[in-house]
Amino acid sequence: MTAQAQIGGSFETGGGTWRFPANQPLHLDSGGRIAPLEIAYKTYGQLNETRSNAVLVCHALTGDQHLASTHPVTGKPGWWSRVVGPGLPLDPERYFIVCTNVVGGCMGTTGPASTNPETGDPYGLAFPVITIADMVRAQAMLIEALGIETLFAVVGGSMGGMQVLQWAADYPERLFSAVCIAAAPRHSAQNIAFHEVGRQAIMADPNWVGGAYLKAGVRPEKGLAVARMAAHITYLSEPALQRKFGRELQRDGLSWGFDADFQVESYLRHQGASFVDRFDANSYLYITRALDYFDLAGQAGGSLAEAFRKARGVKFCVLSFSSDWLYPTAESRDIVRALNAAGCRASFVEIESDKGHDAFFLDEPQLDATLRGFLAAQASARGLA
Amino acid sequence: MTAMREDFREILRLVRPGARVLDVGCGEGELLELLTREKRVDGQGLEISPEGVSACLARGLAVVQGDGDRDLDHFPTRAFDYAILSKTLQQMREPRHVLSELLRIADQAVVSVPNFGHWKVRWALLSRGRMPETGALPEPWWSTPNIHLCTLRDFTTLCEELDLRIDACAALEGGRPARPIDPAKPIENWRAETALFLLSRRTEAAPEGMPQNLFGEVELPTPEGLAPRPRRKKARA
Predict the structure, then answer these.
(1) Between the CA of residue A39 and those of A2, A46, A284, what are the distances in Å?
(2) In whole angstroms, how far apart are CA B153 and each of B97, B150, B159, B186?
(3) Phi and psi angles of residue A132, each rounded to the nearest 5 degrees, phi first
(4) Mean pLDDT throughout A161-180?
(5) If you placed Cys at B52, which of A183, A298, A309, B47 could pair as Cys (CB 3.0 to 4.6 Å)?
(6) Model confidence, pTM
(7) What is the C-alpha separation between A13 and A5, in angstroms, rounded?
(8) Which of A318, A374, A378 is the mutation pick for testing B, counting most B CBs within 10 A?
(9) Same domain, yes or no, for A197 and A241?
(10) Which residues in chain A are closer than 8 Å to B54, comparing Cβ atoms?
(11) Strands A175-181, A151-157: parallel, antiparallel or unpaired by DSSP?
(12) CA distance B24 to B14
């Protein structure tokens, strides 16, 4: 176990890599197990004496634990620095904020690029297929190891929002409140279809080498970049793309060839190229698979309300964005309807935005106001100063 | 301003302590907050405007952004003890459907409607031949959100048709204390500016221990915090 703490800004940041011994494996939905399990995590702020101010933030598909601190690979600010910080809705001066890299990820938590103890080589495709519930089970192990009995809140957007729902289904007694942003209770055919395009792009890259590219000393960068480009389109709305790029050209006139003539092409190529520097192709396969397998109602015998049956004590806040076509508002409404049917108290807001699914990373004052209002009210109900 | 306070005061008086309450068109949540504080209700709001929803969240209330016309079917049957619809039934696209939905979701509904049979309304129409603009109906015809106005008698007839029982009824006028009325009396169709109803399904037995008239003459002390408060923002434009 390594943990370092330093003072960053005016609040304390900490974290490291939690190494569970081999006799504490992560049991998986598939029947398999991962041992030993390592979880990379970051913390912001301090756990109070009663251990009642802990907030778990769950990251999206390509996110990681670097929530509000500089990313070690890209050197960019944390992915939710806009929301997490002093005076912001998730204030580390008030809450002890934990963010973990999901199992199957590639930023320190055990994933397909980690060493397989049985062979001494990277797991590659020997890594077991994981689910959203497996990710949450691993988080729950870490939260317990950190000595936190009940989380004040679990918060997440997109895949992070699905983890929030899974937390409510699996560990309702360990939650006080839950915030689910721009998510869905299951992956739709369209969601699965887009992911399949991405996976096929990776697997079609000769440098993928049947998943054993790390041992071969290569990386399927072209395939992974194409996967990212296709996925990135689903994160933006049509009006946002049009406003940002329209038919603007990169330089005067057409090239009469296949260079990136249009700015939107250049933008997507850049998104793809910069993504491969920080992400592992096999992790992309495993995590998209986990998303495709996600179906909370399916896990509960076909009834979404049944999944939340034990979560009556949890206060929910569900948020969607009007222009999100990846996980549209109707999906969030289904969640709210099921919560109501299960007797849970839930709040729901559809935020007007033309920025598409990615709006939850971007400057959306109504998102901030809603988060701030909900969390502050719950904090006072919880007796947090 | 004071009219709303009387409205709230009557609802506060009606609602059982600890009840589960759905406030349809809850605005910024003043009524729900009041009910939560004074009656410890388990409250849920439904509100269409994002500003109203944000205000409710900041007050710590559970609120769902949605439209009374469309989103009531999201709530399970008999999930609440009371469903409250304050002065907005006449703004609904399908008031008849909304009324039945309220009494599917909740055991009782508290509904208030402006009475288009009020003498001022009749007088304005008769004397000037113009659409009335009164205290309860202040907007000109071209900007009013009220698309389905009715008289007291229209409303009681609809309740009959939907097999709803009127458990209590009171007239509200310009901020004066609520006056218990018998809505079947023709004179009330002239006198009541706004009427507040407590309704239940006729197929249900009357709740036990329910007084004959919930708007009895007993004067309750004014609960603290019932001081005049800013006018509630319109639930729907």
Answers:
(1) 11, 19, 18
(2) 18, 8, 10, 8
(3) -60, -40
(4) 98
(5) B47
(6) 0.88
(7) 6
(8) A374
(9) yes
(10) 349, 366, 369-370, 373
(11) parallel
(12) 17
- Cβ of A90 under 8 Å from any chain B Cβ? no
A351 CB within 8 Å of a chain B CB:
yes
Q: B27 CA to chain A: closest CA distance, Å?
A: 14
Cα A115 to the center of its chain, rounded Å: 23
Name B166's bridge partners: B199
The identity of residue A196, as a single letter, is: E
φ, ψ of residue A181 to 5 degrees: the values are -115, 130
SS3 breakdown of chain A: % helix, strand, coil, rounded to 5? 40, 20, 40
Only one residue has tokens 């992309």, namely A284
Rounded Cα gap, residues B161 and B213, in angstroms: 23
Residue carrying the six token digits 């839950």: A178
CB distance from B104 to chain A under 8 Å? no
Contact list in B for residue A348 (CB cut-off 8 A) is: 63-66
Question: Which listed residue (A52, A69, A114, A158) is catalytic?
Answer: A158
> What is the tally of structural domains in chain A?
2
Averaged pLDDT for residues B141-151:
95
CATH of residue A270? 1.10.1740.110
Catalytic-residue membership of A277: no
Q: How distant is the alpha carbon of residue A359 from its chain centre?
A: 14
Q: Taking residues A151-180, report their average pLDDT.
A: 98
> Quick check: bond before B76 cis, omega within 30?
no
Instruction: Name B23's bridge partners.
Output: B45, B84
Give yes or no: residues A309 and A371 share one domain: yes
Report the C-alpha gap between A179 and A181 in whole angstroms.
6
Domain CATH code at residue A311? 3.40.50.1820
Other C-beta atoms lying within 10 Å of the C-beta of residue B201: 16
Q: In this structure, are A68 and A173 located in the same domain? A: yes
- Alpha-carbon distance of A248 to A252, in angstroms, equals 10
pLDDT digits (tens, 9 = 90+) for A291-324: 999 999 999 999 999 999 999 999 999 999 999 9
Q: Are A225 and A136 part of one and the same domain?
A: no
Q: Which two tokens stand for residue A239?
A: 């009006």
Q: Is the ipTM of this complex over 0.90?
A: no
Domain boundary among the residues A289, A311, A326 is at: A289
Radius of gyration of chain B (CA): 17
Q: Tokens at residue B134, please? A: 């009164």
For the question of residue A357 being annotated catalytic, the response is: yes
